[in-house]
Design goal:
This protein is mainly α. 78% of the residues lie in helices and 0% in strands.
Amino acid sequence: MDFEQLQKLQQLKKQLGTQGGLYWTFDNTEDFENLLRGHLSRVAQSWAHKLALSNKNESVDASIIVAESDENIDTEDDYGLFDYLEIYEDRMSDMSSSLELMSDATIKVGTQFRRRTNEISALTEGTGGSYDRKDARKIMKLTSDDLNRYSEILESQIPITTLSRVEAFDALSKGIAISIELVNEDPEDLKLKLQGMLRSATSAQNGLIGFRDSVANLPRFTIQLNKAKRITITSLDRVLDEIRKTIKSTEDVIETIDRIAFEKI
C-alpha cells in the first residue's frame, strides 16, 4: 500500500465532501449500481424535505405546463407507488421460488451425500482399511453424478435469481423515491418484509457455505469426482455471490427507509 497515495485519496474525499460531492466504496460494478440507487433515494428525500420546509416559509406561485405527444410518453412515467411495489413483490416472489428450488436441491444432494459417505464406511468396515477399488469407484461415480445434477439445477436458476433481484430492487428504489412525496405513507410494513427476507437470505447463505465446505473437503479420489467438485464449488460461489448482493441491497433499502422515517420526524 502506497501511504502517500492513501493520504491523497483521503484529501480528495474531504474536498468532495466540502464541495457537496458524493462518494462511497464498492467492490464491483453491481455493488456500485445497487449503492447508487439507494444513495440517490436518500439525496432525493433530503432535497424533498428541504423543499417542503422552504415552501412553508415562502409563498411560491409557479405553474409549469409540459406538453408531450402520446408517442413520446414512456409508459413507465405513469407508474405509481403501488405499481412499483407490485413489480417488486412479483419479482421477489420469482426470486424466492428460485432460491427455494435451490434450497430443496441442496437438502436432497446433502442427503445423497451422507448416503454415499455411509456406503464408503460400510465398504471399509472390518477390513482394516482395505477396500474393493471397483466398488469404491462406483460410489465415487454416483457421488460425481449427484454433484453434477445439483450444479445443473443451480446454474439453471442463477440467471432467474439475478434478473429478479435487479428488477425487484430497481422497482423498489423507484417506489421509495415516489413515497418521499407521500408524507403519510408508512413504510413499516415494507421494512418488516425486508427484514424477514434478510433473515431468510442470511440463513440460506450460512447453509450453502456449510455445504460448500463439505464439497471442498471431499478427497481427490477420481478425475470425475474432482471435476464435479470444481463445477459444484463454482456454481455455489455464484449463488453465494447473488445472495450476498441481495443482502447488501436489502440492508441499503432498510437504511434508506430508516433515514426517510427520521427525516419525517
